[in-house]
Design brief:
The complex is a heterodimer of chains A (about 675) and B (about 290).
Chain A: E1 14-27, E2 30-43, E3 47-51, H1 58-65, E4 73-82, E5 85-86, H2 92-101, E6 103-106, H3 120-130, H4 135-148, H5 154-158, H6 167-179, E7 185-189, H7 197-214, E8 217-221, H8 225-231, E9 234-239, E10 242-248, H9 249-254, H10 259-266, H11 308-312, E11 318-319, E12 328-329, E13 360-371, E14 374-386, E15 391-395, H12 402-410, E16 420-423, E17 426-427, H13 437-442, E18 443-446, H14 450-453, H15 460-472, H16 476-489, H17 506-517, E19 524-528, H18 536-553, E20 556-560, H19 564-570, E21 573-578, E22 581-587, H20 588-593, H21 598-606, H22 646-650, E23 655-659, E24 662-665, H23 670-682
Parallel strand pairs in A: 3-8, 3-9, 6-7, 7-8, 15-20, 15-21, 18-19, 19-20
Antiparallel strand pairs in A: 1-2, 1-4, 4-5, 9-10, 10-12, 11-12, 13-14, 13-16, 16-17, 21-22, 22-24, 23-24
Helix pairs in contact in A: 3-4, 15-16, 15-17, 17-18
Chain B: H1 19-28, H2 31-53, H3 85-91, H4 93-121, H5 123-138, H6 141-152, H7 156-183, H8 186-192, H9 198-206, H10 211-234, H11 246-253, H12 263-290
Helix pairs in contact in B: 1-12, 2-4, 2-12, 4-5, 4-7, 4-10, 5-7, 6-7, 7-10, 10-11, 10-12, 11-12
The chains are: A alpha/beta (about 675), B mainly alpha (about 290).
The complex binds adenosine-5'-diphosphate (ADP), iron/sulfur cluster (SF4) (2 copies) and magnesium ion.
Chain lengths: ~675, ~290
């Protein structure tokens, strides 16, 4: 290549072309293949989704494109061409320019892009200064950038440090930074994985809108299939560093032709599936490790359709293009892919539960924190009860009080005076220290983040043995026997006991956390977002495990999640929280199918869905109001799309029973809600 | 786009090196650490075996040869009563290398315990103890030393207690802030949900996770402790004659510099400086390795 002069050539047909790309990481002195002869193209202006379990090489693709591989990574072969320019032939200066001018990257964790010790404004203007724009001009550009990512009051945001912004705001700032130099290629690596449903929807909307304005091409990496299906024109499925299927998003997701894609899609609770209708399918086994020697089809070990040929011969990428578009599948049996037998039998034996006395009864629970001298009502007047073997789903945006409520129950924070918590008919002391050992072991929790929940200095054996000692009072032989059972119940093996948490994958760590919670035969287990950091295949296995344990032990769950599909799958009853108040509570199916509270309606329509036929989406504008200063009247009135008038701003509606066991906190009468919501479904707004 | 993602999800069967092994390998690659280590080990060897390779008895006087300048017989010259300075410098490492590490150890143990208590209990315990510690930190070491000598008399034990207690609040502050961060992690809540005692939670659950900052702070404090011991000896509050201790030697000879007898002081001063620098290099290396 003759060294390219800084003149911009006419746009190449493809924004990004990867041809036969092979990348390896050097580990223990040996190069281990991560990407194997990967070829894919992204057209100008196109949004391309890359999906697959974690570890399949998605992030490596992203890092390779911008030549940001970690030190031990190397490109063994192939061509990367960005807008017609061979990235591998660029010298350091040209590469720097390409990174500054044409490609930008947004990571899962906005913390990675933002410097915690520098004000937002400074970080933004710095980018423009590098491009030669300084002083007031740079500030103006920064303000314009923040406006563009729909941040209100940019001058005040620019004065703040990253930690003073919410996760969603941080991610928006990170996107603003990525867009600052008007890139022609935008790489998004799991940009919404850490955000909750409504914030996720907002960020995705933002990305979709920006796409129209920018005409940038997008490489969108995610393990969330639903998000990809909403965002992308085409999708590629990556497995062990190889492309196994590719095609237009809706075609691939509705008519997959590779068993791996079929299996991934089956892991998701879809179309309102519930735990008593069958278990989720899972994908047995694991992704081949990096550098694994792969003879035939990489998926053969986990594929129920595999035959001898599959194990010895690498399947080519079959061209299955039809009138719906160009598509590829790397499977000998692509025509039978959808006949893939289930890996997990779907049978469940859950007898309908006899109605018994509630195991937990909460009445008038309040929690007020002091925030800069102002009272902050984190939980307000919550009453509910829970029966043995029942799951209560708690949903609501972050900041709605879900976690605080769980901590009140557990006694980790004491509630305000007045409310009561009764466990099996006996009142619980507000503080954990004052509860009896039996009461403490009866209520346990599985935390969201196992890295925080498992002591990183202790071995798995130590962690579980200690739980058995304290919660089940076991020691010696009895403890070991029970440890064996427990380990088997969560499908771990002995070999996992000797290691420290960091040596296990996220899914395995979460199993340890579940085992710990079940050590003392609890009556109630709180699950706080237990699968939000996991791959769909791992999530399915964990959800099945929770359902199995529940039917075996008759334990009750309080299940917190922002993934409404997951909540629906597991829950018998749902409580929807907003600013610490229950806005709606009732049997799961009634809450989901409606008529429901306007807030529930908005939440449900914010969920990215795989099989979304363009129904009217209800957007929740703006952030959740501050709990120190909730809006007067109905607390939802500032964002309510169905607000009926001044009464909403003047009077707080009561939580009124609409149907037996189903209560809604809204001034709109139930029959009227039913009429309004039915209208939306039939006539597109 | 300056941050690059280098961490990656751990696969099921990829066993990564343990964190301790990582630290070890990164220490072995740190030139700072290795240079510091060589200096420190040299002085430790002198302290342990100095009298076997010192050419003279460091305490034996030889009035006829008093104040001899450096020569092939007396490499570093002799002092006012003819003792061999070279031998004295070699063996003079012993007391300081006993007293300073013990003082640091005391400071670390007391500081860690206080840091765990204040960080774990927060609230009133923290407020009260922290204010007392702050007040304590405001008093100069010398005044503490004077008071202690009045109360306990001069001895190595006094020096150890004085320095140990003066440094404890500083270590406590470091430990406290590490504990405050740990306390927010869910494993602490999980321990409470097992009704563990506060003692167990602090020492079995939290302590192992705050060892790295304690290690760094301890090596840094050791450097200061060496300096403090030398200073106290110099002022006559610490190690007592006839020990060939460096600070003590400087103190009894520094009046002589005016007469041109620089060698009676210079080599002791260089010894102190090299040991402090060596320890600081080790501290830098440890800090670097743990924050990699
Ligand atoms: N710096 C590295 N050194 C060694 N192995 C790595 C490194 N980075 C990633 N890996 C491994 O390479 C594989 C692919 O990783 P990655 O590209 O991060 O996948 P994904 O983004 O799909 O989760 C995984 O097995 C991962 O553990
Ligand atoms: S080629 Fe064979 S093993 Fe591979 S996915 Fe297709 S059927 Fe399964
Ligand atoms: S009371 Fe008014 S503002 Fe509140 S949810 Fe009902 S309609 Fe909306
Ligand atoms: Mg990744």
């Amino acid at each position: 290549m003759t060294n390219s002069a800084p003149t911009k050539p006419a746009k190449a047909e493809n924004a990004l072309e990867l041809t036969d790309l092979s990348v390896a990481y050097r580990v223990a002195g040996r190069n281990r293949a991560v990407l194997r002869n990967l070829s894919l193209n992204i057209r100008q202006g196109e949004a391309y989704g890359l999906v697959g379990e974690s570890g399949c090489g998605k992030s490596t693709v992203a890092l390779t494109v911008v030549r940001y591989l970690p030190r031990n990574g190397s490109i063994l072969g192939g061509v990367i061409s960005l807008d017609g320019q061979d990235v591998m032939k660029l010298d350091a200066e040209a590469l720097r320019r390409a990174r500054a001018e044409s490609v930008s990257m947004v990571y899962q964790d906005p913390g990675k892009a933002l410097n915690p010790s520098i004000r937002i404004g400074r970080q933004l203007t710095e980018i423009f200064e590098l491009g030669g724009v300084t002083g007031q001009a740079a500030t103006d550009r920064a303000i314009a950038m923040l406006n563009r990512v729909r941040i209100s009051d940019p001058p005040s945001v620019m004065q703040r440090y990253p930690h003073q912004l919410s996760g969603g705001m941080q991610q928006r700032v990170a996107i603003a930074m990525a867009l600052a130099n008007d890139p022609s290629m935008l790489i998004l690596d799991e940009p919404t994985t850490g955000l909750d449903a409504t914030v996720e929807a907002e960020v995705l909307d933002l990305i979709a809108q920006l796409r129209q304005e920018l005409s940038a091409s997008i490489l969108f990496i995610s393990h969330n299939l639903a998000v990809v299906s909403n965002m992308c024109d085409r999708v590629g499925v990556l497995y062990a560093g190889m492309l196994v299927e590719e095609g237009p998003t809706d075609v691939v997701f509705n008519d997959p032709r590779h068993p791996y894609t079929v299996a991934l899609l089956r892991c998701l609770p879809r179309g309102g599936q519930r735990k008593d209708q069958g278990r989720l399918d899972t994908i047995p086994g694991f992704l081949p490790g990096i550098g694994a020697d792969i003879k035939g089809c990489a998926f053969a070990d986990r594929c129920a359709l595999a035959d001898n040929r599959c194990r010895t011969e690498l399947p080519p990428l079959y061209d299955l293009s039809d009138e719906r578009g160009k598509r590829l599948s790397r499977c000998f049996h692509h025509d039978k892919a959808q006949a893939l037998p289930r890996a997990t039998p779907s049978d469940v034996a859950t007898a309908p539960k006899p109605t018994t006395a509630p195991v937990l009864r909460v009445a008038g629970l309040n929690k007020t924190y002091a925030s800069h001298g102002h009272p902050l009502r984190a939980v307000k007047d919550v009453s509910l009860d829970l029966r043995p073997g029942e799951t209560l789903g708690l949903v609501g945006e972050s900041g709605s009080g879900k976690t605080t409520f769980a901590r009140l129950l557990l006694g980790l924070v004491p509630p305000d005076d007045g409310g009561t918590i009764e466990l099996e008919g006996k009142a619980l002391a507000p503080k954990l220290e004052n509860r009896g050992d039996d009461q403490v072991k009866a209520m346990q929790i599985v935390f969201q983040n196992p890295d925080s929940a498992l002591n990183r200095s202790h071995s798995i054996r130590h962690i579980l043995s200690r739980a058995l000692k304290r919660l089940a009072g076991l020691s010696g032989k009895a403890q070991e026997a029970r440890l064996d059972d427990l380990v088997r119940a969560v499908r771990l093996t002995d070999r996992h006991l000797a290691v420290k948490p960091r040596q296990l994958s996220g899914g395995l760590k979460q199993r340890v956390a579940i085992a710990r919670a079940f050590a003392g035969d609890p009556r109630i287990v709180v699950c706080d977002e237990p699968t939000s950091a996991l791959d769909v295949s791992v999530q399915a296995a964990i959800l099945n495990l929770l359902a199995d344990l529940q039917s075996k032990e008759d334990v009750s769950y309080i299940f917190i999640s922002h993934d409404l599909g997951v909540v629906r799958y597991l829950s018998d009853k749902i409580a929807v929280l907003y600013l610490g108040r229950i806005m709606e509570i009732g049997p799961s199916e009634e809450v989901f199918s409606g008529p429901h509270h306007p807030y529930t309606e908005a939440l449900l329509s914010a969920v990215p869905q795989l099989d979304q036929t363009e129904t009217a989406r209800i957007r929740l504008d703006g952030e959740i109001p501050s709990a120190t200063n909730p809006p007067p009247g109905c607390v939802f009135n500032t964002r309510c799309p169905r607000k009926i008038g001044p009464i909403c701003e003047q009077q707080e509606p009561p939580l009124a029973e609409a149907q037996p066991g189903h209560s809604i906190r809204c001034h709109i009468p139930y029959p009227e809600l039913a009429r309004l919501q039915k209208a939306v479904v039939t006539e597109p707004a | 786009m300056s941050a690059v993602q280098t961490t990656s999800p751990t696969q099921d069967d990829t066993r990564r090196r343990s964190p301790m092994a990582d630290v070890f390998f990164s220490l072995m690659r740190s030139r700072t650490f290795l240079v510091g280590l060589v200096i420190v080990l040299f002085w430790v060897a002198c302290a342990l075996f100095g009298e076997h390779f010192a050419p003279y008895d460091p305490l034996a006087d030889d009035i006829i040869n008093a104040l001899a300048p450096p020569s092939s017989e007396h490499w570093f010259g002799t002092d006012q009563i003819g003792r061999d300075v070279f031998s004295r410098v070699i063996v003079g490492s012993r007391d300081i290398l006993t007293v300073a590490p013990l003082a640091t150890l005391l400071a670390t143990i007391a500081g860690t315990a206080l840091g765990l208590l204040t960080g774990y209990f927060r609230g009133i315990v923290d407020d009260v103890v922290s204010r007392i510690l702050e007040a304590f930190m405001a008093i100069p070491v010398v005044i503490v030393a004077l008071l202690a000598i009045v109360a306990l008399g001069t001895s190595k034990a006094t020096v150890i207690i004085v320095i140990g207690l003066s440094f404890a609040p500083i270590i406590a502050r470091t430990v406290r802030s590490a504990v405050l961060a740990e306390r927010e992690l869910d494993y602490v809540a999980a321990a409470q949900l097992r009704h563990e005692s506060a003692f167990h939670t602090m020492f079995v659950e939290i302590l192992p996770n705050v060892i790295p900052p304690i290690l760094v702070e301890t090596t840094v404090r050791l450097g200061y402790a060496i300096f403090a011991v030398a200073t106290l000896s110099f002022m006559g509050f610490g190690i007592q004659p006839p020990s060939p201790d460096w600070g003590l030697s400087i103190s009894s000879n520094y009046g002589m510099i005016g007469g041109g007898f620089w060698w009676t002081v210079l080599f002791d001063a260089l010894a102190i400086a090299s040991l402090v620098i060596g320890v600081n290099l080790v501290a830098d290396g440890v800090h670097g390795a743990l924050n990699d």
